[in-house]
Task: structure prediction
Amino acid sequence: MDKTFLANYRSATSFDTKRRWALAGTANLILWLGWLRSSECLSLTWADVSLVLPDKGPTCDLPAGIGMVLLRLSEQTKSDRTRTADIVIAFTTLSGLSLGSWLRRLSRLLFGTPVPPSTDAPLFCDSDGRALDFFPFSLPVCLPLPLSTASGRGRLPSTFCG
Result:
């Protein structure tokens, strides 16, 4: 799915189409890799996102060549108001999924720089900058559905997309 989003992003000819594919690619990986609910994902602002580029990993006690994306969830998304919720996601996973690259693409489109600004602007917004409260793009979702077996019990497929 990520490869499809990237191909569509690269082949997009209009700013709005490119922006929508960047939003879709970013949402896809935040939802899958961060295990966030849609409301948590949609409530993120650029100030909630920190990037550590792979070449800067050692400055954060990460191995050389390893970066990270740090997401800070707002208090209203947490079940326990006395705790903070930070989610650390690899800049690029071992399988090649790169949330960090999607965030840099989106930042480059919206702000003209691959370094996301620390602003309270919503990460997921429409073309007028208004925060989204739903995903206006259709995301193809692949979930592991139980397969029938001869015994009647379900089993998960050995591979699935996501």
